[in-house]
């Protein structure tokens, strides 16, 4: 089979929106939607030019533009919609430095969780700076939005929905909440064993994924859990269940991402785990840079699961992400940390469910997205949007 080749879609993608950036964009036909986190637009004027270029300097138009804390405080989360080659319309914007979102297949229902903190306040001794979380919902494709009732101290870093009414929110703790009425009310699910660490109140899961059958899976590392030693455990939660149950164990691994296949009419599907071999990074050890050899493993939703390690990647690659497509297509995104100069983005791909792999050096990009329904990969280089099919 030939290597997939890029084709250019447009050379002015999101060019009309300032500041620069494509955000977490999505493409559907000619339609574009993106969740964009960006700082405020900064403006400068030149002073001292009459005295020569060597003394001239750029001065911010307003004093706050020269203050890093003010710039961070003024970051915002936006949702924009439009068309390829056309202008994007911003129909949602909130002051925040981080966000999570979910959208329905028809793009009519959207949820956005925002997180903001005040960088001008001194950091407390325990390092637990206050954060303000908010949750929003749109039922008309983003034209109008409703702020849902949500305690501002409950961070949300993941949203996983079965449909516009039923879904999960995952946040620090880690905590899991479930809604069955479109976010009007939420019920907290008891976390699985050893998921919570009293010394780390803002701990997060290593990975989470919602299967095509509505089963939520979460992964996290445990030094010891009964007979389990130094492993990542994966727990599953069925929609009609009230508690998690153990799904799989990955010995001597730290899971960084989960993904599941979604084949039409299939009752059995595969779960994939992208992991790093060994223990988590020791932040107290200056010599530990966190780089680990990466692997990908798989099992099916049958019980009991049988985990198979599919592939071990060369240790010079830092694994950045995983996409699971249809008909056996898998993509793993990596960075070659052994290169001199600027790091390059690499895409490893498999067309046979992870049995064999090829890789492509993609240079330096500014973002991308994989459409799992069509096995199409999109990449952004400055304002040039490209795509290729697997």
Provide the helix percentage: under 10%
What Rg do the Cα atoms give? 22 Å
Kindly state the number of beta strands.
30
Structural class: mainly beta
N-end to C-end Cα span? 10 Å
| Average pLDDT reading | 93
- The biggest beta sheet, please? 4 strands, antiparallel
Q: Based on Cα principal axes, name the global outline.
A: globular
> What is the spatial order of strands in the main beta sheet?
1-30-29-28
- Unreliable segments of 5+ consecutive residues: none
Determine the number of helices (DSSP H or I, runs of at least 4 residues).
Answer: 1
Q: What percentage of amino acids are in beta strands?
A: over 45%
Descriptive tags:
single chain, 390 residues, mainly beta, four-stranded antiparallel beta sheet, 1 helix, globular
Would you write up a description of this structure?
- 31% of the residues are buried.
- By secondary structure, the chain is mostly beta strands.
- Strand 18 and strand 19 form a beta hairpin.
- It has one helix at residues 68-73; strands at 7-10, 24-28, 31-38, 44-47, 57-60, 76-83, 89-95, 98-103, 110-116, 132-138, 146-148, 158-161, 167-171, 175-179, 187-189, 207-210, 216-225, 228-237, 245-251, 253-260, 270-277, 294-300, 308-312, 317-324, 330-336, 345-350, 358-361, 368-371, 376-381, 384-389.
- It has a domain at 40-74.
- The protein is built from one helix and 30 strands.
- This is Glycosyl hydrolase.
- Keywords: Hydrolase.
- InterPro entries: WD40/YVTN_repeat-like_dom_sf.
- GO terms for molecular function: hydrolase activity.
């Amino acid at each position: 089979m030939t290597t997939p080749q890029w084709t250019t879609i447009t050379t002015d993608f999101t060019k009309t929106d300032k500041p620069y950036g494509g955000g977490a964009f999505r493409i559907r036909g000619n339609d574009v939607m993106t969740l964009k986190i960006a700082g405020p637009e900064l403006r400068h004027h030149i002073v001292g030019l009459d005295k020569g270029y060597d003394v001239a300097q750029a001065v911010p138009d307003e004093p706050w533009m020269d203050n890093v804390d003010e710039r961070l405080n003024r970051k915002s989360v936006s949702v924009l919609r439009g068309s390829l080659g056309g202008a994007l319309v911003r129909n949602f914007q909130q002051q925040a430095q981080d966000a999570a979102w979910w959208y329905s297949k028809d793009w009519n229902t959207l949820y956005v969780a925002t997180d903001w903190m005040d960088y001008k306040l001194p950091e407390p001794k325990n390092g637990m700076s206050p954060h303000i979380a908010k949750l929003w919902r749109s039922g008309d494709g983003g034209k109008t939005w409703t702020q849902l009732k949500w305690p501002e101290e409950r961070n949300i870093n993941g949203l996983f929905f079965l449909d516009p009414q039923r879904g999960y929110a995952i946040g620090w703790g880690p905590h899991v909440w479930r809604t069955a009425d479109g976010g009007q009310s939420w019920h907290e699910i008891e976390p699985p064993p050893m998921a919570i660490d009293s010394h780390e109140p803002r701990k997060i899961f290593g990975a989470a994924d919602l299967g095509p059958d509505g089963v939520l899976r979460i992964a996290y590392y445990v030094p010891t859990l009964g007979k389990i030693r130094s492993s990542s455990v994966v727990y599953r939660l069925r929609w009609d269940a009230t508690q998690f149950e153990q799904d799989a164990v990955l010995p001597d691994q730290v899971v960084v991402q989960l993904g599941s296949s979604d084949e039409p009419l299939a009752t059995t599907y595969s779960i994939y785990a992208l992991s790093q071999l060994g223990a988590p990074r020791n932040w107290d050890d200056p010599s530990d840079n966190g780089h680990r050899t990466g692997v990908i493993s798989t099992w099916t939703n049958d019980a009991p699961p049988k985990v198979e390690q599919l592939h071990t990647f060369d240790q010079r690659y830092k694994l950045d992400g995983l996409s699971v497509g249809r008909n056996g297509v898998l993509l793993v995104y990596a960075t070659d940390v052994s290169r001199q100069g600027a790091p390059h983005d690499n895409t490893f791909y498999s067309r046979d469910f992870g049995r064999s792999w090829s890789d492509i050096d993609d240079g330096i990009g500014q973002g991308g997205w994989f459409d799992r329904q069509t096995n199409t990969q999109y990449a952004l280089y400055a304002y040039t949007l490209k795509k290729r099919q697997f």
